[in-house]
Amino acid sequence: MALALTLGVVAGCGGDDSDSEETTASVSAQDCQADDLETLEAGKLTVATDSPAFPPYFEDDDPTNGKGFESAVAYAIADQLGFDEADVEWVVEPFNSSYAPGKKDFDFDVNQISITDKRAEQVDFSSPYYEADQAIVVQKGSEFEDATALSDFADANIGVQIGTTSLDAVDAEIQPTEEPQVFDTSNDVVSAFENGQVDAIVVDVPTAFFLTATELTDAVTVGQFPAPGGDEWGALLEKDSPLTDCVSFAVDELSSSGELDEIEEQWMSEATKAPVLQ
Fold first, then answer.
1. pTM (predicted TM-score)
2. Residue in 34, 42, 46, 27 with CA at minimum distance from that of residue 108
3. What is the CA 161 to chain-centroid distance, rounded?
């Protein structure tokens, strides 16, 4: 069961493309009042995420409790738009289907979804609410545990999921002499690591801390480094959603007021503790 829990977290943290442009809302508070918004259900704000939902993004597998980084962000966005907590409805949307084209059964989705140009052809994104660095996880006691630079991994056998921001980061920043082992699913990445098939895996920093704290207890996060072009997460909406500008406005307001920083500090502070690898 521990492995199954791990997989949900890793799967939720990939990107499948490179650079993206930051969205800036072109509306005002007056344009973004709850009673005037075209939501899926009148007077309600329907928010999606995957299930199970894991720390540090959600606590107790319960998005409705407001605990965890993305739960708190979702409720803060709702508050900016004038919705009470009781007006927020949560639904399940698998990560891999969230950015597929077509109609959505939610107003927006928060699930560590990287903003990419390719995905933005099919869905809308809000202004980014978080930028994630990448982290390298190795087994305790391995020759790589004391690594202090990306160059220390030049000869490492690195495992990573196909089509992710993490793979882009390995290729661009680490540039290992041996091609990284690329796996179709997060299940395969974690299994390969547990079975000793790879020396290290690369995931985003919050996921690395969760994995090493709860699932991969014989592993350690040795350091972090930026993804090429950054790895920004945004609220995902249906393509050309009438809510996109207002959700971006809400995120921008949370950012400028400092509330977004406070939420990040409360729930993601562990991510700042990994040394930066150059």
1. 0.78
2. 46
3. 14
What is the rounded distance in angstroms from the CA atom of residue 87 to the CA atom of residue 181? 45
Question: CB–CB of 166/202 below 8 Å?
Answer: yes
The neighbouring-strand residues paired with 88 are 45
- Look at residue 159 and give its three-state secondary structure: strand
Cβ pair 197, 159 in contact under 8 A: yes
* pLDDT tens-place values along the chain, 278 residues long: 333 334 444 444 454 444 444 445 588 889 999 999 999 999 999 999 999 888 889 999 999 999 999 999 999 999 999 999 999 999 999 988 999 999 999 999 999 898 999 999 999 999 999 998 999 999 999 999 999 999 999 999 999 988 778 888 999 999 999 999 998 777 788 889 999 999 999 988 888 888 888 888 899 999 999 888 778 999 999 999 999 999 999 999 999 999 999 999 999 877 667 888 98
Pairing of strands 200-204, 45-49: unpaired
Contact (Cβ atoms closer than 8 angstroms) between residue 41 and residue 104: no
Dihedral (CA of 65, 237, 95, 42) sign: positive
Q: Fill in the amino acid letter for 125.
A: F
Q: Are 25 and 246 in contact (CB under 8 A)?
A: yes
